[in-house]
Amino acid sequence: MRDINDEKYAEAYERYEKNFVARMSIEWKFDAEKLKDANPGTSVEEADKIIADYMKDYGFYYSKDFGSYVSEKITTDGELKKVIEGLITDNLWIASCLEIFNSRRLETHDLKALLDDMDRIDGKK
Q1: Which of 29, 57, 77, 93 could form a disulfide with 87 if both were Cys (CB 3.0 to 4.6 A apart)?
Q2: Own/partner pairs for 109-112, CB < 8 Å, 24+ apart?
Q3: pTM value?
């Protein structure tokens, strides 16, 4: 893994993290509205597929740990829309996405890819 103390890298990561969280929060609020037709009767499997499809649209993979967490929340909370809205600010959701980001970028020491990701999120690419 790249040395997080590398000044340029640390700065790039911090910029990415801030922009990522802000952008995803906005986009997921709109996506939650698109999911309003998913009622409490939606099965866990159907809900998982809906969420997985949205995550793929953003270029993220649907991790089993995150999927299990969502399934559990749907089972206990009942309403998919409420669950999705809750995920917008849920630390586990953010951590899950950042974990995927970490595995794709940090371990490959790919600063250029990190910066490209940030530019894409900022709408510059």
Answers
A1: 93
A2: 109/1, 109/2, 111/2, 111/8, 111/9, 111/12
A3: 0.26
